[in-house]
Amino acid sequence: GRDKIETPEQGKFKPVIKKAMVELEGAPFGAFASEREEWALKNRYISPGPIQFIGPLSSDISHT
User: Counting C-beta atoms within 10 Å of the first and last residue's C-beta, which end of the chain has fewer, N or C?
Assistant: First the structure.
């Protein structure tokens, strides 16, 4: 079933996202952690920056 909580002010139930802790010994976190050293040495994030509607940068193509 889906998790729900009761709101105190109305006595009604609403859906909620169940709290989940990260399993530090699990495969998903291990895959994430294995990239740390490379991320520390190389830039793997490119910010597209604000959208330019007018001006000299308005015709540039975004990285994303």
Answer: N
CA dihedral 27, 29, 34, 36 (to 10 degrees): 180
| Both structure tokens of 23 | 């399993």
pTM above 0.70, yes or no: no
| pLDDT tens for each residue of 8-19 | 666 677 777 778
* Whole-number Å distance between alpha carbons of 48 and 62: 6
Q: Distance of CA 22 to CAs 2, 18, 30, 31, 44, Å?
A: 20, 13, 11, 13, 23
Tokens encoding 49: 């920056």
Rg (CA), the chain: 22
- Domain locations in the chain as residue ranges: 4-41
